[in-house]
Structures are given as structure tokens and as C-alpha cells.
Amino acid sequence: MLNHGHILTAAEMQRAEQSLIDAGISVEQLMDQAGQGAAQMIWRIAADMPTLVLCGPGNNGGDGYVIAQWLRQKGVDVIVAASADPKTDAAKNARAMWQGQTMDVSDAAPRAQFVDCLFGTGLTRPVDPPLFQQFQRLFSAAKRRVAVDLPSGVQSDNGMLLNKLGAFDLTIALGAYKPSHFLEPSRSKLGDLVAVPIGIDAASALSLVAKPKLTAPGSEDHKYTRGLLAIVAGNMPGAAQLSAMAAQRAGAGYVKLFGSKGNIAPQPSIVFAHVSDDTDLASQLSDHRISAVAIGPGLGQDELASAWLEAALQTEKPLLLDAGALPLVGRRFSETVKSRGAETVITPHGGEFAALTSSNSGNKLTDVRNLSTQSSATVLLKGADTVIARPDGETRIAGDGCSWLSTAGTGDVLTGIIASRLATGLSGFEAACQGQWIHNRAAQLAGPVFTPEILIDHIPQALQECL
């Protein structure tokens, strides 16, 4: 893992490299280390493939010359296609050390392996159309495609595609991971993601969701010390029941489902509490033994749902809001949640998130952080690139999402897992991060084409791996 899992923006990466240079390491040394490390990975996987390295005028192009020279010395049939002469001193030095053939990109013929060193971290505008046309010509004809640091045409800080890119087979991150290594739509273009360390050791407010470190209950623990979770069911109680079943397997000592009598089919494993109206719900949720409350899955959008949501918002317990609860709060979300006296966690998908905020900068990290700061809530924005932020700006990205989770009901399972972790006494941010990891790992263990119930059955095994 690079840099202890921290993810650096382009500006943070520049500062981190400058710190190494200030400590006595030259730019040329950093380029040699990065280029040779990348070349070794390319050689191990495809040593026998005729290779074309596309080099730009900056330091990413300099990395390309180092890669080409290292591969050439290993006997690989390699040529360099250059878009322009090197402009930086380090890139000029790397070009001078290259002993093989160099040709203009417009004259280069495609080869079996294409290595993209045209532009790297820091690109903020599209590659010019004539040059990108040449890029596409060489890219499309190759059998294997490798991007060094980031594919050319990707904006490093937000995952956006500046050009219409095809998919690479391998991307080699240099020095540190960048946000676009994990954010869509760029993540889907990277292929396998590997890393080359160059001594970067910089902290960042952005990191990957890590595997939790959990402990088993002690001999003195009982159901209340392990946490009592209250889940409020609405007009479509099946979703809340899935949340309750997931919560039972995710660490809370006691899970209780609150709803209208006759609206929920009894299940032996779930304790059900009848609620007559919102006043009754508020009274029952005031039970001091309750550690956390979750509301939203299957809640509905009628007057009763609104009344029950208001009752839940008035509790002094940590609260998780999901699904039906989010559109009911709507754009008054930030002021409503900020006035609460306890932590709030929300877990919207993209459409629900848009209903909560007018912010749409095009940068998922910025938008999630802004909503978290404005509302003082932990925000988990679900998706293939789930982002979790807390009000002080600390943010984590789920790095390896299981695509089989694109199934109805799996979001209700995630609600139950996170709420269960919240009930054990964790902060909202840590509960969200732990819940996200356990949810994704359970999906990986469940294999392809699973139901929510099958996913729930694999939660204990995922949790066991964390002990």
C-alpha cells in the first residue's frame, strides 16, 4: 500500500515531491526510481511484447524515457513516440539517456503493447484533438495498454474524463494514489491498479476505507452493553426488516423494530414494538437503553412517515437516515440535522444526495465534504466509488467495490450494518467506514448473483475476518 493508504491531490503530490527534493533527492533521482519501478512491473507481466512508449514534453514523458531505456536493456523491442521535445530539465536528461529509436507520434506505427506517458497528474484540460487522434490510433491498435500514473485525458483530482477514453489493462500509480484512481468514471478505465513507491510519506485528509480492527465482546458484556438499535419501519416494512436482519449480524447486542401493528409479518428472530402514533414513537425512542436509531428503509412519503421522521429527529440518540427519510427532509436537511444534539449519519445514493443539496461542482469529493460540513453529519454517498466524509473534512473512498451489490435491497442491508456499528458506540464516521467495508466484503464472500438475504448470511464471516 502506497503512503499508508493516503490519497494525494495533484497539489499535495507536488508539495510531497518538493519535500523530498528539499531533503536532498534530485528530480532526476525521483524520475529514475519511478520509471524503473514502472518498467519492472511492465516487464514482469509482458516482457516479450513489442512495446511503444508514448512520451509527452513534461516529467511524465521523462518517466517514459526511463521506462523505455530500462526495458531496452532487458532485451525488449521498444521504441518511443514523442509528441514534442522535452521541456523540463529532468525530462531532457532522461531523453539524453535513452539509446533507442525515437520518432514523432504522427509517424509511429502501432505496437502490441502501448505505454501511455503522455500526460500525468495535474492535467486540467482535454488533450488537443489532433494529438488525441494520434493517441487513439496507437491505443486502439494495441493488444495491451498500460497507463503510467494516470491515463492521459483524466483529471487527477475528481475522476472526470477530459477526453473520451477506452479502457486500459493496467495503471501504475507513481509515488501516491490520486483521487482518480478510485473515483468514477475514471476508475473503470484503469484496469488493474498497481503502485510504485518513491519515498512519498505525506499525510492527507483523504484515504481508503480500511479493514476494521474489531474485538469480541468481553465476559462482562450483555445485550445492552453491546448496544440496542431501534429501527423504525414504515409502509413498506420489508426493507426495514432486511435492515434489522443485517444489524443482528453486525455486532449490536439487541435490535428492535418499531412499526404499526399488523403492518409487519412477525419473525421469530426480530423483536417488534407496536407504535400507535408519532407521540408514542417519540416516547418509546426515549428509552435510555437505546443506543442508536435508524429510519428510512421502506418508510414511505405519507403524513405518517413525516410524523415518524420528526419523532426520530427529535431523539437525543445517534441517528442514521436513509432511503425514504432523505427526500422527506429534502433541502432543509442541513439546518434540520445541524440542530440535533447527537450524531447523524446519512447514506444516500446519487439521486437522494441531489435532493439534499444544491451543490453540484462536478467534484464528488467536494460536494460530499460540503454537505457534511454544512450539516455536521457524516455523509456516505453510495455508488461504485462510495465516498464517506465527516464534518472536519476527513474523507475516505471505498477502493474495491463489489459490482454485484447493484441489487435491490442491498442498500437496506448496508443501513442495518452501519446502524449496528453505530449502536456499539462508534462515532458516525467510523461506523460508516466499518459498515461499508463489512458490507463490501460480505458481497465478495457471497459470490455472484446473490439476494439480500444471502448477503446478510455472509456478514458474520466478513466480521470474523476483522477480529
Main traits of this protein?
alpha/beta; 467 residues; 16 helices; elongated; seven-stranded parallel β-sheet; ten-stranded mixed β-sheet; 16% strand; UDP-N-acetylmuramoyl-L-alanine:D-glutamate ligase; Rossmann fold
Provide the CATH topology of the largest domain: UDP-N-acetylmuramoyl-L-alanine:D-glutamate ligase
Question: Beta-sheet strand percentage?
Answer: 15-25%
Secondary structure tally: strands: 17
Give the helix proportion (percent range).
25-40%
Q: Any idea of the CATH class of the largest domain?
A: Alpha Beta
Description:
Helix content is 38%, strand content 16%. The chain is α/β, with parallel strands linked by helices and 467 residues long. It has a 10-stranded mixed β-sheet, with helices on both faces. Strands 3-2-1-4-5-6-7 form a 7-stranded parallel β-sheet, sandwiched between helices. The radius of gyration is 26 Å and the shape is elongated. The model has no long low-confidence stretch (mean pLDDT 94).
Give the SSE layout.
Elements: H1 10-22, H2 27-46, E1 51-55, H3 59-73, E2 78-82, H4 89-97, E3 102-104, E4 113-117, H5 129-141, E5 144-148, E6 170-174, E7 192-196, E8 206-208, E9 228-232, H6 237-248, E10 254-259, E11 271-274, H7 278-285, E12 290-295, H8 303-313, E13 319-321, H9 325-329, H10 333-338, E14 344-346, H11 350-356, H12 364-375, E15 378-381, E16 387-389, E17 395-397, H13 410-423, H14 428-446, H15 452-457, H16 459-464
Parallel strand pairs: 1-2, 1-4, 2-3, 4-5, 5-6, 6-7, 8-17, 9-10, 9-12, 10-11, 12-13, 13-14, 14-15
Antiparallel strand pairs: 15-16, 16-17
Helix pairs in contact: 2-3, 2-4, 3-4, 6-13, 7-8, 13-14
